[in-house]
Every structure is written in C-alpha cells, then in structure tokens.
Amino acid sequence: MATTPEEVRAPIERSRAPRPDHVPQDRVREIDMYALDGIEEGYHEAWKRIQTDDIPDLVWTPFTGGHWIATNGDTVREIYSDPSRFSSEVIFLPKEAGEKYDMVPTRMDPPEHTPYRKTLDKGLNLGRMRTVETKVREVAIDLIEGFADAGRCDFSSDYANVFPVRVFMALADLPMEDAAMLGRLAKMMTRPEGNTPEEMAAMLEAGNRGLFDYVDPIIHARRGGDGDDLISVMINAEINGEQITHEKALGLIALLLLAGLDTVVNFLSFMMIYLARNPALVAELREDNVKLMRSAEEMFRRFPVVSEARMVAKDQEYRGLQLKRGDMILLPTVLHGLDETQNPDPWQVNLERRGISHTTFGWGPHRCAGMHLARMEVIVTLEEWFKRIPEFRLADGATPVYHSGIVAAVDDVPLVWSSKN
C-alpha cells in the first residue's frame, strides 16, 4: 500500500481574525501555520526563520482564526506542563476545527484524563512493544528488500508512507486494504483543507466522523473478547473500575488510528533526507550499533513534525501579557528542538550531544503514549536499511515537497544508491 502525494496548496487569500483588544499591536506577526512563508525550502527551515533573536516568547497571528504562538523551547515546554493554566479542552487549530475534534483522552485534563492514559499505556508500554519487535523488523526487511536491488526508490511513497502503517495495522489486527482510506481520514484532521476556519472545521469534523464510523462496528465485535491486539486490549480495560463506555471507546480507538497513521510516517522522510545529504553521519551510525540506537533521541529532537495547541484555561497574566480564557496558543515543537538556548548548534545531528531537550512527543500529562513504538520503528528502519543499503544519496535534481499543519509532511524523496551495495 502506498499513499499518493498531497497536492501543494495554491496561494490563496486566507481569512484574518481581528486583533482582540488585549493583544498588543507589537506582538502581531503574519504567520500561517498551514502555509508557512518559505516552506518550499523546508518545513523546519520555515518555522526556524521566525525564531529571531528579538522575537518575544509569545506572538499573535490573525491567521487560522487568530491565536498566540509560543516561539521558544522554554515557553513551549512550560505551557505543555501546566494544564491548570493551559487546558487540552481544544488542541487543534483553527479553534472552530479543534472544537469538532472528539478524540479521547487528548481533550481531557487531569484528573479525568488519568485513567484513560493508563489504558493507552497498557497497550503501548515499553514491555509490550518489545514483544512485537520481531514483527516490526519483518515488515521493514520485506519493504527494503523489495526495492534494494533497483538502486533507487521514492523513500516517502515506497517506505515511509507504508512501513509504520503496515506495522500499526498488524498490531491493531486491521486489514491492510483499509489503510489508504484511513490515511486519507487522518490527513483530513491533521492538515484540513479550507480557506476559512469554518471550512477547515467542516473538513476536520468529516475526518473525525469517518474514523468513528470505521471503528464503531470493530469495537462492538471485539468488546468482551480475549484478543491481544491493541484495540481489544484497550476497549476491554476498565476505567475507574467500570467498563469503558462505547462513546469514550470510539474516541480512544479513533485516536489510536490517527496517531498511528500520520506521525512516524512523516518523521521518517525528514530524517532520511538529512541522512542522504550527510554520508559521514551514515557511516558513523552504520559502524556503531550502540551509537545508532542512541541516535533516535537526537533524531526526534532534530526533526519534530507536530504543532498542536493549548487553550488558555482562565484569565491570567503570563510573561508580561494579559491572556483571556479561550485564547489559543500554538506550540510548534520545532521551535523547541531547534532552539539554540536549549540545544547548541541545533541544525546538526550530534551523536555526542548530552542533555537533549525537545518536546517532539509533547510534554506533561499528554506526552505521546506511542513514543516507545515510534523509537523502535526508527531504530529498526536504520538498522535494516544500512544492512542492505549502506550508502545512498538524494537523486540529482531532487526537490522534496513540504507541507505544514498540525502534523508536517514531505513528499517526493527520491533516493539512489549503487545496486552493488
């Protein structure tokens, strides 16, 4: 199964929200999270361009319904860490779209969130992931050996858009023929099309409803069963001593699909573009497996793909600003991992880096439950790729196409190598 590249959005006149009275004029910046200036040069490059030495901790943009943006690692992490001041009641932008998002437990704050998070951890904890490593490795080997002798591939469509999806569908015991359709629903939520907040909300709601409609009969069929797939484990867990309700199970399993089909998928291509341009780093990783395994954390720091938001929970003063309940704050994780004050020389993948600082998996009570699976998929990919394709590069004239949104993406990643590798 391979997904098709996304269309690049044509330049359009996006709607603008009026500046609220409590937003100082000098905090206004023209930043559209779905159409970043300069994105043709790279998603991370486009976000990093706004992180100038004199930019305040928070700026406000009139695009995407009007919202604040945290501009450095310290601010991103602090807002993630404090649900009493910055709620998960709405986490997607524009806010009109985020209010249609109905996944569980990502829109809950502690303590309501806690038992649902424990259920996610039960299905995705490190111990359970170790038991599925052989299956994950088999999928990687099968894909890589499918094109290794050809001396070329489009990494995005031939591997990155297939590998994590095939792994996830197997762990959830879902038919592979459904993957492309589920991938389209996930994209409707993480990069919703539309020129206005209302149009984007309609697109996101349609994607959310599509995922709910898909999982509804599956939950009914597996409820009360003794299956050990991810879905069965989660829907048969207890929440506060009682069976999880059907409504909450819909949100929980739909979240599982959304996260499994559109995050690692996109991270892998960003990482591989960098490696294709840095053969010395590839050689260093290839020659030292311990170093390769430790490299995963540095890769996650260097290539964040998620930009979700938090809602201001109450009127408050924060970093010299007056924030109002209901204000939205975007948290681009790229502005944490690439912040020089958090990680010196941030553009470089430094295998000797200590004290790596990032929020690529979020932070605080909502830190990504799937991070152990993601880390395994990255390590397995590098190990099995280097065994079969030790040296590779971007094809001449390659021009990867970047997309920004709640989850960033990149298409057109042609890699070439000697078939005698």
Ordered list of secondary-structure elements with their pairings:
Layout: H1 43-48, E1 58-61, E2 67-70, H2 73-81, E3 86-87, H3 95-98, H4 113-124, H5 126-131, H6 133-147, E4 152-154, H7 155-160, H8 163-171, H9 179-190, H10 197-222, H11 230-235, E5 238-239, E6 242-243, H12 246-262, H13 264-276, H14 279-287, H15 289-302, E7 307-312, E8 316-318, E9 321-323, E10 328-332, H16 334-337, H17 371-388, E11 393-394, E12 401-403, E13 409-411, E14 414-416
Helix pairs in contact: 6-17, 9-10, 9-12, 10-12, 14-15, 15-17
Written account of the structure:
The protein is built from 17 helices and 14 strands. The protein has helices spanning 43-48, 73-81, 95-98, 113-124, 126-131, 133-147, 155-160, 163-171, 179-190, 197-222, 230-235, 246-262, 264-276, 279-287, 289-302, 334-337, 371-388; strands at residues 58-61, 67-70, 86-87, 152-154, 238-239, 242-243, 307-312, 316-318, 321-323, 328-332, 393-394, 401-403, 409-411, 414-416. The strands form five sheets. The protein has a five-stranded mixed β-sheet. α6 runs parallel beside α17 and α14 packs across α15 (289-302). The model has no long low-confidence stretch (mean pLDDT 91).
Quick recap:
It contains 17 helices and 14 strands. By secondary structure, the chain is α+β, with helices and mostly antiparallel strands.
